[in-house]
Amino acid sequence: MVYITRRETFAAAHRLFKDGLSNEENLKLFGKCSNPNWHGHNYILEVVVAGEVNPATGFVLDLKELKEIIHKHVISKVDHKNLNIDTDFMIGLNPTSENIVIAIWKQLEDKIPAGKLYSIKLYETENNYFEYRGE
Ligand code: NI
Question: Of 38, 112, 114, 127, which is the most exposed, with the fewest CB atoms less than 10 Å away?
Fold first, then answer.
């Protein structure tokens, strides 16, 4: 089994909040990420696919193909977007990194043509990252 990784970056705005709470209560719960007038992050996304090497190509999966799949189903929907209101697969979700990483997994899980989706990692800052492996 070989694990191949494609790294992508995107910039997106969001706001973390719970309906029904005041701005002050949301600030207490979510900190600066609850700013009512939005703010942004430069996210780094790592998509790992695990699979056997195809003897005909020497690839698990052509990374160019993986890049195109990630762009079509994720990056085009999040880059320079507002995750609360622009991104169809985030509608109704509070856009914490935990919820984003699970939503990205669901976007990609059945789109991988060879091997299997193994892990999605999302870096919100240099020091914080979030990983999901489908369970
Ligand atoms: Ni934030």
Answer: 127
